[in-house]
Amino acid sequence: MSTDHVTAAPAPVRFDTKIAVLLRDDLETWQRLNVTAFLVSGLGTQHPEVIGEPYEDADATPYLPMLRQPVLVFEGGKETLTAAHAKALQRGLPRAVFTSDLFSTGNDRDNRAAVRAVGTGDLDLVGIAVYGPKNAVDKILKGAHMHP
Questions:
Q1: SS3 18
Q2: Got the DSSP string for 97-108?
Q3: 66: Cα within 13 Å, side-chain hemisphere
Q4: Model pTM greater than 0.85?
Q5: What is the C-alpha separation between 70 and 47, in angstroms, rounded?
Q6: I need a labelling partner for 115 at 20 to 30 A (CA). Which of 7, 13, 74, 85 fits?
């Protein structure tokens, strides 16, 4: 009789929150990548629980920590972004915005000034990121579809 014990695989990690990026569907590929990177970059500064542990390879070379959960990327038309933004504001969920004006600025100071110069309802949104409970984020993204 064998005394070997079978160790069960650990259960998959499930999250009760969602990180989502919604991009306007008329962006060029480089813009989609740039906007996504900018939008998720601020999340960990306000919500440190979304950041995982640092990485290290087999040679003990250290690497920066990353978000602990997947970022789901969606796309939709201008109206979908406007509606999602309004819902995120109404629900008070953490959010980041990227407007078309930011493509013509080259630094953080000018980016913030460009957003500050436009009223909430007049922002020309090309991307938003939201974080929160899955159900709330799903409702905010109604009408959007997964990025291909």
A1: strand
A2: EEEGGGGG--SH
A3: 8
A4: yes
A5: 15
A6: 74
Q: What is the distance, to the nearest Å, from the Cα of residue 114 to the centroid of all Cα atoms in its chain?
A: 21
Amino acid at 74: F
Calpha distance 99→76 (Å, rounded): 15
Residue 2 has a pLDDT of 53
The two three-digit tokens of residue 5, written as one number: 């014990």
CA-based nearest residue to 24, from 97, 131, 120: 97
Length of the chain: 148
User: What's the DSSP call for residue 48?
Assistant: G
Q: By three-state DSSP, how is residue 72 classified? A: strand
| E strand or H helix that includes residue 32 | helix 29-41
Chain position carrying tokens 């290290």? 56
Torsion angle (degrees, nearest 10) of CA 122, 43, 11, 57: 130
Residue 10's identity, in one-letter code, is: P
Instruction: Note the pLDDT tens digit of each residue in 43-98.
Output: 988 999 999 999 999 999 999 999 999 999 999 999 999 999 999 999 999 999 99
Tokens 């819902």 belong to: 87
Rg (C-alpha) for the chain, rounded Å, is 19
